[in-house]
């Protein structure tokens, strides 16, 4: 087993590390994470507007449009903010002006949406002038935001490195100098996008969504599309590699698109339909990847080994808030074949039962994006728009984890106890 673990570490670790440190993936990851406070806050206004209590809905119905305004300005424009943030972080990696690069990326993305002339629905004769349709400014435009932001910054970086910029004298303040430096790269980017979108009338967002639609709606919204990432993330963690940093951050844009479709459906008064949306995996692992909160409880209160008991107690509080690095590296689970089994098997079971619970409408699909540190079962209640069944389902999954972890933890506890007793003698 040691030779197998060593072989995996030598062959898989360098590849996984290289992927996780790829400048584009890192920029996309950091850019999307930067937008999370806005999307989390905005999604809560959907909860306020659509709380599933009949008396409350009747009372709030006249004010729904006003209540939903923060949602439209945050989640509805999520891709706009992502384009800026992705461009910003990629520019930082290239060590060029991040602020102007982010702005250029955001403007280029917004230019991919063709303005239309709109009329007031209440008064068709009243023209609202040129407006930007919001269809691809939210989650549906996330792919376009990523592609356009990366290409924009690549053009800016090329111009800067090749000195295709306007240079100002040293006496000019740096803020002014940076503005003039960005003029030529910005012009190149804007003209290129204008040619593609304005002259050729090519809808980039529509093209990309057509390509990725089978992956989103069939691949990641199916049982296999949900269970495979679960297994990959837990297996990578068992080898000491941050599984979510690789698998999760690659798939996060897809999950966000499915999630926004759910939010839009709820905002329109319909039920959410996508299972594989952001928030689903809060049910799959309770206490962090691998559902390690159960391990913390068993180690702290059911084990005799002084080491395992102490690790369990120290990791219990972070585990309640879904921070599980202390138990993963403390127990450890990494390269530990005994604890690796429940770490992989537990999420496989909870992911499966939760998927079919949502598939057969025994549980609402997720439509609210809550902070990952919210403890269970409150997390489930919040993300499913106040579905009381989510509380009981998360408790059921926690019991499943307790059952799966218990025999393996006790087996490991006996090994550690024998070692401690031998050392004491």
Q: What's a concise summary of this model?
A:
By secondary structure, the chain is mostly helical. Helix content is 70%, strand content 2%.
What's the total helix number? 20
Radius of gyration (Å): 25 Å
Based on DSSP secondary structure assignment, what is the total number of beta strands? 2
What do the pLDDT scores average to?
A: 85
What is the string of helix and strand elements?
HHHHHHHEEHHHHHHHHHHHHH
SS-derived structural category: mainly alpha
- Strand content of the residues, in percent? under 5%
What do these coordinates show?
The chain is an all-alpha fold and 425 residues long. 70% of the residues lie in helices and 2% in strands. The chain has helices at residues 2-20, 23-50, 54-60, 64-67, 69-74, 78-94, 98-110, 142-161, 174-181, 183-199, 204-219, 223-238, 243-267, 281-284, 293-302, 306-320, 325-330, 337-359, 378-383, 388-424, and strands at residues 116-119, 127-131. It has a two-stranded antiparallel ribbon with strand order 1-2.
Entry keywords:
425 residues, mainly alpha, 70% helix
Per-chain topology:
Blueprint: H1 2-20, H2 23-50, H3 54-60, H4 64-67, H5 69-74, H6 78-94, H7 98-110, E1 116-119, E2 127-131, H8 142-161, H9 174-181, H10 183-199, H11 204-219, H12 223-238, H13 243-267, H14 281-284, H15 293-302, H16 306-320, H17 325-330, H18 337-359, H19 378-383, H20 388-424
Antiparallel strand pairs: 1-2
Helix pairs in contact: 2-6, 2-13, 6-7, 6-8, 7-8, 7-10, 8-10, 12-13, 12-18, 15-16, 15-20, 18-20
């Amino acid at each position: 087993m040691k030779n197998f673990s060593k072989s995996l570490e030598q062959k898989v670790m360098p590849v996984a590390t290289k992927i996780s440190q790829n400048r584009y993936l890192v920029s996309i990851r950091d850019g999307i994470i930067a937008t999370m406070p806005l999307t989390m806050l905005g999604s809560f206004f959907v909860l306020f507007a659509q709380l599933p209590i009949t008396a409350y809905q009747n009372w709030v119905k006249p004010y729904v449009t006003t209540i939903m305004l923060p949602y439209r300005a945050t989640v509805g424009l999520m891709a706009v903010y992502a384009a800026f943030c992705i461009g910003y972080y990629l520019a930082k990696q290239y060590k060029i002006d991040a602020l102007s690069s982010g702005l250029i990326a955001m403007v280029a993305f917004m230019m991919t949406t063709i303005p239309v002339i709109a009329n007031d629905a209440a008064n068709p004769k009243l023209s609202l002038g040129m407006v930007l349709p919001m269809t691809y400014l939210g989650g549906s435009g996330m792919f376009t935001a990523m592609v356009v932001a990366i290409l924009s910054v690549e053009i800016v970086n090329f111009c800067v490195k090749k000195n295709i910029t306007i240079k100002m004298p040293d006496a000019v303040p740096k803020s002014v100098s940076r503005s003039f430096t960005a003029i030529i790269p910005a012009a190149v980017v804007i003209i290129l996008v204008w040619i593609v979108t304005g002259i050729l009338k090519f809808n980039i967002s529509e093209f990309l969504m057509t390509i990725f639609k089978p992956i989103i709606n069939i691949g990641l919204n199916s049982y296999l599309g949900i269970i495979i990432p679960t297994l990959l993330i837990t297996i990578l963690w068992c080898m000491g590699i941050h599984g979510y940093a690789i698998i999760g951050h690659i798939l996060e844009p897809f999950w966000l698109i499915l999630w926004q479709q759910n939010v839009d459906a709820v905002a329109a008064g319909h039920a959410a339909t996508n299972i594989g949306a952001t928030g689903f995996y809060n049910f799959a692992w309770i206490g962090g990847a691998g559902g390690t909160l159960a391990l913390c409880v068993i180690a702290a209160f059911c084990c005799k080994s002084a080491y395992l008991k102490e690790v369990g107690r120290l990791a219990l509080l972070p585990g309640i808030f879904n921070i599980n690095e202390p138990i993963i590296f403390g127990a450890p689970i990494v390269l530990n074949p005994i604890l690796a089994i429940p770490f992989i098997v537990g999420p496989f079971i909870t992911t499966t039962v939760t998927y079919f619970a949502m598939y057969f409408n025994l549980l609402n699909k997720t439509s609210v994006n809550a902070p990952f540190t919210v403890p269970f079962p409150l997390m489930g209640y919040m993300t499913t728009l106040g579905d009381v069944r989510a509380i009981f389902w998360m408790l059921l999954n926690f019991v499943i984890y307790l059952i799966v972890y218990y025999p393996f933890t006790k087996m490991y506890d006996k090994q550690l106890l024998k070692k401690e007793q031998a050392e004491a003698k």
